[in-house]
Write a structure and sequence with these properties.
The chain has 346 residues and is of the alpha/beta class. The protein contains 13 helices and 13 strands. Helix 1 crosses helix 10.
Length: 346
């Protein structure tokens, strides 16, 4: 799976090719000048997990590729538009996670931005800490207890702060379907949503009492779960969606809690990967993949990710399309069964 030898050969060749080119043009022998690669992000935040994973990617892969790569946090709409207009030379690529295709399924992005219209590059990392949280004094300590509390308190609702059309809505959909299957539609229908975007907005919604549960992450919310945090902002983890627990944290997974959809445990690993123009030049995509294979195996890349409890998760470009499409198809079946976001709006 790793391609270190190819990376060592390709990067110097690419560097020589770039040196022979004028900015934005091609050399006489057909080499493409990509001495700068703009990496547009599907998130506009420079503190959340997309930027943190992208920074690790650009810092380490740029060294292996021997080009200047710059992460540009412009948000999903602008990022897709930039990729749609990008040249095939690799001078603009996109870095995002599973929301890139979920947002199309949910209808928050147009069909023309679907996976079929891009070249899926390597999968590079994952955030295993995607989680649901509540205030520290909530009358439940995990999602199963929250569902039982909702069943036993017929006049109450559970309001979740999630972002429409993304990974948070998907995870809520899975929980909703499990509650409906376990306790009936009358209980599930008292699950509501409060539409929010950034992690900061979700936290504020929880602290102000507008919601009961928020979608966050270990990396972003751990600071609010410590013993010395003020009660008014103190939080607790209820569950993570990943396949496995995160080392060092006593947070159960959905699967451990028995949360299932269609008789199968619900697991969702939030993975980060590259998207490139459909007609991207093979020389660039191959060089990028080789450089990624080299970079993800270095201590520098692993150490930078681990600071925020992220992990390397390399799937090479010759396997990534099938890998992501199969994951998309599995998750889309959950979306098809769940209520529309507007139906759950409180």
């Amino acid at each position: 799976m790793k391609k270190k030898l190819a990376a060592l050969i390709t990067a110097p060749i690419l560097a020589l090719s770039m040196a022979a080119c004028s900015s934005g043009g091609s050399s006489d022998d057909g080499g493409v000048d990509v001495n700068r690669v703009r990496v547009v992000l599907g998130s506009s935040s420079t503190t959340a997990d997309t930027y943190q994973n992208a920074h690790a990617f650009t810092e380490n892969v740029s060294k292996a590729l021997d080009v200047n790569m710059k992460a540009d946090a412009i948000g999903a709409n602008k990022a897709f538009q930039a990729l749609d207009k990008a040249k095939p030379d690799g001078s603009t690529i996109m870095f995002f996670h599973d929301m890139s295709y979920l947002s199309v399924k949910y209808g928050s992005q147009p069909e023309k931005f679907g996976l079929d219209n891009w070249t899926v590059g390597p999968v590079v990392s994952l955030n295993p800490g995607a989680a649901f949280l509540a205030k520290h004094d909530a009358p439940y300590d995990d999602l199963v207890e929250a569902a039982k509390w909702l069943k036993d308190n017929e006049s109450e609702t559970l309001t979740f702060a999630v972002e429409a059309g993304g990974t948070s809505e998907l995870s809520l959909d899975a929980f909703y379907l499990w509650v409906a299957d376990t306790y009936g539609d009358d209980v599930a229908e008292r699950i509501k949503v409060f539409a929010t975007g950034s992690d900061e907005e979700k936290n504020q919604a929880l602290w102000s009492g507008n919601v009961d549960i928020i979608y966050g992450s270990i990396g972003g919310n751990e600071q609010y779960t410590k013993d010395d945090v003020e009660d008014k902002v103190k939080e607790k983890f209820l569950a993570i969606t990943a396949s496995d627990r995160v080392e060092g944290f006593d947070i159960p997974t959905f699967e451990e809690q028995g949360i299932e959809v269609d008789g199968e445990p619900f697991t969702f690993d939030k993975e980060f990967f590259v998207l490139m123009p459909k007609d991207v030049e093979d020389s660039f995509s191959t060089a990028l993949d080789d450089a990624t294979a080299e970079a993800v195996d270095t201590d520098a890349y692993v150490d930078e990710l681990s600071k925020n409890h992220f992990q390397t998760d390399y799937v090479p470009i010759d396997e990534s399309t099938q890998y992501i499409e199969e994951k998309r198809d599995r998750l889309e079946s959950i979306i098809d069964q769940a209520p529309e976001f507007d139906e759950l709006a409180s």
